[in-house]
Amino acid sequence: MSSYKLNINGISVGIKKVDDNTFIPKNIDVLGEVFTTKTFDIKRSDIYDNTPINTEAKEWYTIKSFCTVVTENLKEEGAILIESLRMHHDQPIYVTCDNPTKLFLESRGFKDVFFNCTANKTELRAINKRYFSGKRHDNINRFHKPAPILKKMEAMSYALRQATNTFFLDCDIIVLKKIQERFTKPVCLSPHYYPKADTFKGFQFGFYNAGYLFTTDKNFPNIWKWLYLNDSTFYEQEGMNRIPEFKEIETFGEEHNFGLWRDLNKIPSNLKSLHAHLSDNLDKDANTAHLKMNQNIRKCANNILKNRHQKLYKYTQTVLNLHKRDAFIHYGKCAGQYTENYICSNVLRPRYKLFNSWWDVRDKQEYKHIVKRDYTKKELFDILAIIQEDDYVHVHNQHINWCYETVKAYKDNNFFTYTFLRDPKDLICSLMFWSNERGVKLSKIDNPTNLNDMFEKCLEDKGLQRLWQLPDYIHMLDSVMMFNYENFKNFLYDRYAHQYTPGLKRNTSQNKGFHFYYQNGDIDKGLVDKLMKTDAYKEYYKYGLID
Questions:
Q1: Residue 128 and residue 44: Cα distance in Å, rounded?
Q2: What is the 8-class DSSP label of residue 325?
């Protein structure tokens, strides 16, 4: 039997042949001792190609696209990646994913994100059967998924059909600063920059990280795929050690791609990107050692975000901890129909079960309960009784058909409760025009037909008072704000991490607004003053709802 040795600065280490092109150390511990011995100093250039980007280059490639792979179990992390990219870059992002992930990411409202839905479970199963049935890497585990990994090369090819270059990022990357560099080579790789004592791990797991690379070469994905399938002892990563044999490369600096393989006590001051699973969705598949490493980098990453990038930190917490239960307390003539339609159509579907007694939600037949009226108190309690612990639920009802008891019950069941309001002066005007145009009776009295009469009746009639006065449960709600596009935009971002795109107004009337009629002399000043002096109107000031 042939005996092979690896000679490093005069020290020989036994290696064994795996196949025609691959050798591995006979004993990793022995190799580790070689690299940790103090008898000589190992330079990075002695063991792998580490060619820093030329920061003085006069000409370089500008990034034309980004690409990634996201599966349903990591869709929240995918959203964080895209949001962090969008804080610093506007290039198109090409996402290879499954259909549920596409729907989820689309609901975030990202700009210039394009989807290639070829990573559905059926296709991944077919890939496993074709390429990985019975095949084992030396370092096989349950944490890494061979089929989605193979999609990385497809994601790059997909992007390179649309753009002259692409930057591949694992979906658990968080971009902290602009990551454009003066790229001059066809491939840029990200060294792990192991602590010195762990340098030998490059032979086991790869010297370059497989989640962070830039290329201008349309053939590069094919080379990487071939290495993964034919010449790699640790998934797609160890085979990357041989990329410099095929392509001229340069390497990212230590400020890029800070991950669990680094010394977590030595965080670069100019850190540009993190590599960390902020969710715990994969923890169940990690062994004890890997789990501990994941937990450590997650803690480290959250601390970095919290201390250096508050806006992004808030976003990550929102996405990772989306409230599963919402209750919209709908005030009439406060853009309630617009709010409900936008949120249900653009933010919540398809995950949430929608309870709206006015809407025929045809793709949710079992939950529609269409009665063309508001839910009663009993029906609101019935909804609480039928929902399951893991259900994502959205409930809509007009504010006059909520009460202290129902709001409390929903909050006790972990519902996020919210409403949007309007200055009562504008609300009263809108109510009169809307009700008369549609023949809707607002109370037991006949609808007023002029604004002075309307203001007077809203001060006197209890049926009309309830349409503009704040209810006794208002202080219990999680979010109370005046409706305007800026407030709605901020609400959607803070609550759902959703980027707002204004849509068409709904359920409008011919009302021209309080200020128009007041300046035109259609509303008596004395009535307005009387309204503004009421305790009910002053309640709006208490909640900071009007100036």
A1: 36
A2: E
**What does the pLDDT look like over 499-514, one tens digit per residue?**
788 866 655 567 788 8
Is residue 116 within 8 Å of residue 97, measured between CB atoms?
yes
- The two tokens of residue 428 are 């009263």
Length of the chain (residues): 547
Residues 438 and 351 in one domain: yes
Q: How many CB atoms lie within 10 A of CB 439?
A: 7
- CA torsion through residues 267, 272, 278, 282, sign: negative
> Which residue range forms the structural domain that includes residue 415?
322-542
Same domain, 192 and 170: yes
Amino acid at 3: S
Question: What's the whole-model pTM score?
Answer: 0.63
Distances (CA, A) of 43 to 24, 51, 53, 442, 533: 21, 13, 18, 82, 79
Q: For residues 350 and 256, state if they share a domain.
A: no
Query: Does a structural domain hold residue 459?
Result: yes
Q: Is the pLDDT of residue 102 over 50?
A: yes
Residue 272 near residue 89 (C-beta atoms within 8 A): no
DSSP 279: S
Six token digits for residue 467 = 């349409």
Q: Report the sign of the C-alpha dihedral through residues 176, 181, 185, 190, in that order.
A: negative
How many Å separate Cα 178 from the centre of its chain? 19
Q: Are 349 and 107 in contact (CB under 8 A)?
A: yes
Distance CA 394, CA 378 (A): 17
Residues 12 and 146 in one domain: no
Pairing of strands 66-70, 93-97: parallel
Q: Is the dihedral of CA 212, 217, 222, 227 positive or negative?
A: negative
Instruction: Report the distance separating Cα 124 and Cα 70, nearest Å.
Output: 12
Query: What is the number of domains present in the chain?
Result: 3
| Look-up of token digits 């011919």 | 510
What is the tens place of the pLDDT at every residue in 329-342? 999 888 998 999 89
Q: What is the pLDDT of residues 61-79, one digit of tens each?
A: 999 999 999 998 899 999 9
Measured CA to CA, the distance from residue 232 to residue 219 in angstroms comes to 19
Q: Does a cis peptide bond (omega within 30 degrees of 0) precede residue 350?
A: yes
- Report DSSP state, residue 223: H
pLDDT of residue 21 exceeding 90: no
Mark whether 443 and 301 lie in a shared domain. Answer: no
